[in-house]
Amino acid sequence: MPASRTTSRAPGVAGAVLAAVAVAALIAVGTALVVLTGTTRSEGERGGTDAGFAIDPVLGDPTSVATVVMAGIYTWQPSVQGSTWDALHAQSAFLTGPMATAAATPPTPAPRPISEWAGWARSDDTVTAAVEASGETVVDGDSATVPVTISQTVLHRSRESTPFTTYTADVTLHRVDDAWRVANYRILSSTL
User: Where are the beta strands (DSSP E) in the chain?
Assistant: First the structure.
């Protein structure tokens, strides 16, 4: 009969290996849940958009404020917003002067809606805006002008996208209480 061979491991090594395997398994399960569900959001948060979420632009940098606020103003959810004014109103905390006045109360009478608005609402499309600085920011004391390009794209429920329009604009900001706020903007060109 062959002699049986018995090996023994130190109890500390076996415990450490078992603990490492357990930790690795927990990390793998957690990662798989996030990847497979595609979310780390809590109950009630709406995915796929930043509309309705608070933003905190870098208040000390007029270029960052201009690009973030203009993206918010030109990103629309027609299925949940009554008009483009709702997007402007959502940016109220980052506005001053004429822009703050315009965002405070809906215009009466309401402006004629964009012709595509009803179709976008029926289709649950979202119009997103990507905004980038397109030139040198000019700061003069407590005022700044930021040239920007605003590119809007329609995102469809099918996950397809359609380019909508591109604008160039000059955004005027004023420093209020040590933070830059958008005061006005002027559209210079449009692909509409």
Answer: 126-133, 138-140, 143-155, 161-176, 179-190
